[in-house]
Amino acid sequence: MTPTPTIFAPLFIAATALFLWSCWKRLSLTAVGRADNRLADIGRRLVDTLGYAFAQRRVLAKASGMIHLAIFWCFLVLMVANAEFLLHGLFPAISFSRLPDGLFVPVMQTIDAVSLVALIAVTAAAVRRIVAPPYPEARTAEAFFILFLIALLMLANFGVNAAKISAMAPTTQQIAKETFPISGWFVHFIPPDQGKLVHDLSWWTHAVVLLLFMNLLPLSKHFHIITAIPNIFLRRFEQPVLPERERFEAGNRFGVDRVDGYTWKELLDAFSCTECGRCQNACPAHTTGKPLNPRRIIHDLKLNLLKNGPALGQGDNALQPLIGEGAGSIGEEAIWACTTCGACLESCPVFIEQMPKLIPLRRHLVEMESKFPEELLNLFENMEGRSNPWGIAPSERGKWATLLGERPFVPGSTEYLFYVGCAGSFDSRAKQVTLALAQLLDKAGVSWGILGREELCCGDSLRRLGNEYVFDRLATQNVALFKERGVSKVIVQCPHCLTTLKNDYRQYGIELDVIHHSQLLLHLAQDGRLTLPRKATELGATLYHDSCYLGRHNGIYDEPREALALATGAAPKEMERSRENGFCCGAGGGRMWMEEFTGERINLVRVQEAMAQQPDTVCTACPYCLTMFEDGLKDLRQNDRVRVRDIAEIMADAALRPASPT
């Protein structure tokens, strides 16, 4: 019953050599990418790897993650058993049987039990993939074949052990069955005098399947078994993930139109995707019928890298365009469909960066080819000419404050710059929020001022739409103005302004203490500086919608809810999808200025989700969300029944209106 090393050794050497060559062949393709330092803060990386790779924190966010957790840990345990199996095949003297009984028995019992758990887990995974797949395309022959191979490995292991037990004397068999409680059950299926045949057949089945499985990994999506843990270790820590700053010098190319325009880590993402479908199920563009599919973006990037990587590594031109139609190319409509909400980043178990790969593609289309949706032409011209999306004269920026008197920001004496933003300055509905916030700041005794006509757009939409050139100009001018005026503390009412001033502008050499108005109003109320003499109970049942740029991009979830609770006397109702799992209003990533011609409108889907909670008032903390909800309610003819209010307006109801007589 001993395996023959003279037959197994050449097979093992050939299979191992092929496996290593295949791994090197694929991983070496990432070398065509640009440099990227992902080794800073090793300690934090190790801790995160333990939490997200080994404890599978993100995988367990869904109940089905238990199946993957079981397979993952069974795989780790059985790596030890398979290592012993391979070594025993090469050197028969190496065997667990040489361990002392006190160690041999628990080790064998553990391996036997884990093999059963693995068999149950892969069966459950196969059933789930048939009955309730994460997405329809998940029912692939490759997926089922891999699950079948894992199951076959477990059964072959049971067969080897059962055959050994069947050859023992009856008295020894009972002891062996206690050591192998699962394998011992399979002894009943071995015909008399057929133990050696079953053993040899099971052993060689296990050997061939194990080596076959090993060599299938680099050639399939299951390569993530090898790359996922390193991908987690090398993940980006920055929150939010920011586009790189471009340098506008003669001869430079802008954006990305070939895979070698990405960094080596971004290319490693392509080999680390598990194709679990969580990103596409979270993506508002995909779920509303747009051609964008984050999972498919990564898959097409991998196909493009496999096809073009070898040529690019030799300095030749790409064979297949990265931007285009067909497998291995990313379509322009998909590129423009992204709302940059970050849901894909939040949902990915292995920290693949899907959304950040689209902005460089937009940059190439805008800056190198001047190809972009027609409706963006006015936006770009207005931004470049008058620094606001509507093209309104800059002299109109501060007119909302006429009733409050002159409120200039005075260097050295004004504490906060109230950066109003374009919507808060020019949009008639958002200006009501601006006025309410200003009155609250006055009541609380906050020292604040505005820049008026000197305020420029922060440039968020421009940057996310790929017009980095105009963004760079605005950001440079804003930073110079802030430094000249000695601005250090900034109040914003728009989450897009928040993330741009607080995060993007760090790339331009300025660190600003930027606070969103929902945070500041809560702190003022908690400190007693802003008194709330009444409760805004006439609003009825309030429902809070998370802004993507306030929540996922900047981690601000609790403060808006706590502020609402103080103003209304009750915690707000929650959407079915909220906080980290919140659903976009559809206006991010510059989509505020674009029409939706394909599938359902994202804002209508979100409004319908809100209506399911039967609110009287939907509360937002973003002017874009406010607009999208009001438009959606009008389209659904629900605007007479449900109101949309900003947190500042609700706080103003509680703080500025006189208390009801008791």
Task: Give me the secondary-structure topology.
Blueprint (H helix, E strand, L loop, with lengths): L4 H23 L14 H13 L10 H26 L10 H31 L9 H26 L3 H10 L15 H22 L7 H10 L30 H9 L5 H5 L1 H4 L6 H20 L18 H6 L5 H5 L10 H11 L7 H11 L29 E4 L1 H6 L1 H16 L4 E2 L10 H5 L3 H18 L3 E4 L2 H8 L10 E4 H10 L15 E3 L13 H11 L4 E2 L27 H10 L5 E4 L2 H13 L7 E4 H9 L7
Parallel strand pairs: 1-2, 1-3, 3-4, 5-6, 5-7, 7-8
Helix pairs in contact: 1-7, 2-8, 3-4, 4-5, 5-7, 8-9, 9-12, 18-26, 22-23, 23-26, 24-25
Question: How does this structure look, described?
Answer:
- InterPro entries: 4Fe4S_Fe-S-bd, 4Fe4S_Fe_S_CS, Cys_rich_dom, HdrC_iron-sulfur_subunit, Helical_ferredxn, NarG-like_sf.
- The chain has about 650 residues and is mainly α.
- The protein folds into 3 domains: about 5-30 and about 55-225, Up-down Bundle (Fumarate Reductase Cytochrome B subunit); about 260-370, Fumarate Reductase Iron-sulfur Protein, Chain B, domain 2; about 375-655, no CATH class.
- It is built from 26 helices and 8 strands.
- Helix 18 (about 430-445) packs across helix 26, helix 23 (about 560-570) runs parallel beside helix 26 (about 645-655) and helix 24 (about 600-610) packs across helix 25.
- The model has no long low-confidence stretch (mean pLDDT about 90).
Short description:
With 662 residues, the chain is mainly alpha-helical. It folds into three domains: 196 residues, Fumarate Reductase Cytochrome B subunit, CATH 1.20.950; 110 residues, Orthogonal Bundle (Fumarate Reductase Iron-sulfur Protein, Chain B, domain 2); 279 residues, no CATH class. The mean pLDDT is 92.
